[in-house]
TrEMBL record:
Residues 3-69 form the Polymerase/histidinol phosphatase N-terminal domain. SUPFAM superfamilies: PHP domain-like. InterPro entries: PHP_dom, PHP_domain, Pol/His_phosphatase_N, Pol/histidinol_Pase-like. Gene3D superfamilies: Metal-dependent hydrolases. GO terms for molecular function: 5'-3' DNA exonuclease activity; 5'-3' RNA exonuclease activity. It comes from the Bacteria. This is PHP domain-containing protein. Transmembrane segments: none annotated. It holds the Pfam family PHP. It comes from Candidatus Abyssobacteria bacterium SURF_17.
Amino acid sequence: MFIDLHCHTRYSGDNTLEPLDLIDTARRRGLDAVCITEHDSFCASEPVEEIAQAEGFLVFRGVEINTDKGHILAFGLRDDSWKERTGYYTKIASVRPKVEACGGILIPAHPFRIIGAASVSNGLFSMDYINALEVLNGENTERENALAIEAWERLRIPGTAGSDCHFAREVGSCATWFERTVGTLEELISEVKAGRVAPARLDGGEYSRLPMPHRLGECKE
């Protein structure tokens, strides 16, 4: 099962991608589902879920949070009550316990992008609270993805991938392979925690998974 774990639509406020265009492209590219991770709001993606249900396409919802430790994908939140922004950033110390309390997961997005992202300089390797790492991002440079792969090998945690799409042409450029079929957000979270996932990129019309640097059972809890 292939799921694009990092997608945006016009409801993020920084693009004009219509949900129907995202869904149509996802289907054409062989995706089984997508995750809508609008910027700094879980509630913003509600209209996308409604459209997807009408179209019979599986959509999960998360949020991409602009934290003091970089952009982090959070899955498990059900509203926007977690928001406690001070200035430009949300402090990870305030959102972390709320995600953990609902059994959710935290995944640093595009960890080596130079501007506005988690990186070695602000403590990626000491983030003992993250559940996985976004290893491939469709909007990254090859160098940024290569650095993320190296970090994944060192951290020994599950690896994910997403397109970070803001335009239809970008949908599904990278995706996460799930060993088991998931139909609910709870199942998705459980499979990521268990490490039964792998980052993949679209290559010649088919998805190619990265080789696992460690056995699934060896992933850090």
